[in-house]
Amino acid sequence: MLKILPTIGWREWIHIKGIRSKPIKAKIDTGAKTSALHAQNIEIEKIGKRTIVHFDVFASHTSDRHKRVSADMVEERWVKDTGGRRSLRPVILTQIKLGRFVWDIEVTLTSRNDMKHEFLLGRDAIKGRFLVNVARSFLLGKLEK
Q1: What CA–CA distance (Å, rounded) separates 94 from 86?
Q2: What span, in angstroms and rounded, lies between the C-alpha atoms of 102 and 121?
Q3: pTM, full prediction
Q4: pLDDT digits (tens, 9 = 90+) for 61-80
Q5: Distance of alpha carbon 47 from its chain centroid, rounded?
Q6: Which of 42, 71, 131, 145 is 20 to 30 Å apart from 89, CA to CA?
Q7: Are 57 and 42 within 8 A, CB to CB?
Q8: Going from the N-terminus, what domains does the chain have, and what CATH number goes with each?
Q9: Interatomic CA distance for residues 125 and 39, integer angstroms
Q10: Pick from 99, 142, 106, 141: which is nearest to 121 by CA?
C-alpha cells in the first residue's frame, strides 16, 4: 500500500525538548546524513557508566545570550562537513517537534558559527516521515510573534 507522507519545506520551525524553550529555525538538508545543532563550549564528562556532554546554545532565535545545557552522550561520531573536513562530534538523543509530529532523533553538536541556520535536520531524521518541497518554507506553520 502506498503511504502518503506529509510535505515540509526546506526550512521549518522545530521545537527541541530540553534544549531550547522556544522554537528554532531549522534547515532541512537531505544531503546531510545526521542532524546538527550549533553548540559552543562543549565539555564531555564521565560519571560512572554515563557520559554527559555540557554545551552552550543560544537562549532564543532573537538572542545573543547563551544557555548551558547538559545531556547524555550516545557516542562520538566522525562527521564530514560541507567542505569535506572530518571532525569527531558528540551525539545526543533528543526529542523534536515539527508541526504536530514528535519523535526522537540523534543530533551531533558542533560549532555552526559560519552557517546561517543553527540547526540542520538531516535525512536520517526525516527518512520515511516527510517529503521535502525545496521551493517552499515553513509548510507546517510560521513562528507566531
Answers
A1: 23
A2: 14
A3: 0.89
A4: 556 677 899 999 999 999 98
A5: 25
A6: 131
A7: no
A8: 8-37+74-133 (2.40.70.10)
A9: 19
A10: 106
Judge contact between 123 and 8, C-beta under 8 A: no
The radius of gyration of the chain from alpha carbons, rounded to an integer in Å, stands at 15
pLDDT tens, residue by residue, 88-140: 999 999 999 999 999 999 999 998 777 778 899 999 999 999 999 999 999 99
d(CA 46, CA 123): 30
- CA 132 – CA 79 distance, rounded (Å): 23
CA 123, CA 114: separation in Å to the nearest integer? 21
**Poorest-confidence range of 14-23, 46-55, 110-119?**
110-119
In the numeric block, the cell 554527559 is attached to 52
C-alpha span between 81 and 61 (Å, rounded): 23
Instruction: Return the residue matching grid coordinates 545526543.
Output: 92
C-alpha cell at 61: 532565535
Q: Which residues pair with 139 in a beta bridge?
A: none
Q: For residue 96, give every residue at least 6 positions away whose Cβ sits within 8 Å of its Cβ, in sequence order, or none.
A: 14, 15, 16, 17, 102, 103, 104, 105, 121, 125
